[in-house]
Amino acid sequence: MTPDLDDINAWQYDLPEHLIASRPAARRDDSRLMVVRRTSGSIEHCRIRDLPSLLSRNDRLIFNNTKVLPARLFGFRTSTGGKWEGLYLDESPDGHWRITGQTRGRLLVGETLTLVRADATPSAKDVSAEPFELKLVSRCDDGSWLASLNRNQPTLELLQDYGTLPLPPYIGRKVADQADQDRYQTIFASAPGAIAAPTAGLHFTPELLTSCQQAGQTISHVTLHVGIGTFRPVNTSRLSEHKMHSEWCHLPDTVADEIHATKARGGKVVAVGTTSVRTLEAAAHALGCIAGWQGTTELFIKPGYEFQVVDQLLTNFHLPGSTLIVLVAALAGYELVMEAYRQAVEAEYRFYSYGDAMLIL
Description:
Layout: E1 32-36, E2 43-47, H1 51-54, E3 60-64, E4 66-68, E5 72-77, E6 83-91, E7 97-103, E8 112-116, E9 132-139, E10 145-149, H2 155-162, H3 178-183, E11 191-194, H4 206-214, E12 218-224, E13 247-251, H5 253-264, E14 269-272, H6 274-287, E15 293-297, E16 312-316, H7 323-332, H8 334-346, E17 357-360
Parallel strand pairs: 1-17, 3-12, 3-14, 4-11, 14-16
Antiparallel strand pairs: 1-2, 5-6, 5-8, 6-7, 7-10, 8-9, 9-10, 12-13, 13-15, 16-17
Helix pairs in contact: 7-8
C-alpha cells in the first residue's frame, strides 16, 4: 500500500547513531558514493572519485559557491552574567544583526549581550576594556532578535574576531577545531553568507574537478546562502502545513546561458547538493524559464514537483523527516529513495554533513 506522503511519518527511517559522521573522511574524495538509477531502479556502490566515469561527456556540474561565516557566537548577559550562545543569521539594511540564541531565563527588549571570543570563557574576566556588545532591539516573528552593535566595524571583521564556524548539532562539537576550519568549507567557497556548508560540495578536490573536466564535464557556480532552516526539522505532522525557511540565492546570467547550451547539446544538468537544486528551480519557478535571477525563495520541492532545470543530483544522506530527503524523493521517487536509505544503513554508509554521498542518475 502506498504511504501517505503528506504524513511526516512516511519520511522517517532508523539510523544507528554510530553511522552519523562526526569527522570527515581522510581525504575529501575518499567518500563512498551510492549510485541510484531512476530508470532501472538499480543501486550500486562506488567511490566519489569514480564520478567522472559515471557522468556523461557534455554534462554540467552546478556547484554552490557560498562560504560559511564564522557565525557561532558566545557571550553573556551583561546584566546578570548568565552565559549566552547563539548564531548570527544576517544583517538588516539599517545595520542591525539578526541573531538567535539560548540562555537561562527570558531575554528582554533593551537587554545587552556582551560577546567574547570563541576560545574564551563567557564571563566578564574575558572581556576587553572596550567590550563588544549587542543590544536587543526587537523580537522577530520567527523567534530571532534584531540587535544593534556598539562597534562601527564591518560585520565580517567582527565575526572573524568573535565567531567560529557553526557546526551542525549532530557533529557534537560546539567550537570548530582546526580540522573543521579546513574541511567544513568547499574548495570553491567564495561568497560569504552561509551558516551551514553545502555539504555535497565538500567531497571535491582540485584533482577530482580536473578529472571531471578531462572527462568532458563542465562546471558552473551558483550561490545560495544556507540559513538557519537547515538545522530545523519539520515540526508539523503534515508536509502541506510546513512553512519553508527563506534563503537568498543567485543564478547568474552567464550560468543560465551555460545551462541552455548544455541542454542544447544533449548534456545533463547535475546539481551538486540540494542547495544548487533549490537555486536553479527557484529561478525557473520565479521566471517561468531558465534565466538569470536573484532573490529569496521559500520553494518547497516535494513529490509531484516538475523539475524545470535539474536532471541529476549528487547529494549527501539527510536527516529522517527533513525537507531535504523529501526533495531527493521528488527527483528519484519515494520508494527508490527509501530503499536506497535502507541499503545505505545496511552497508554502513556514513551520514549527514561529513558523510558519504548519493548520485541520482
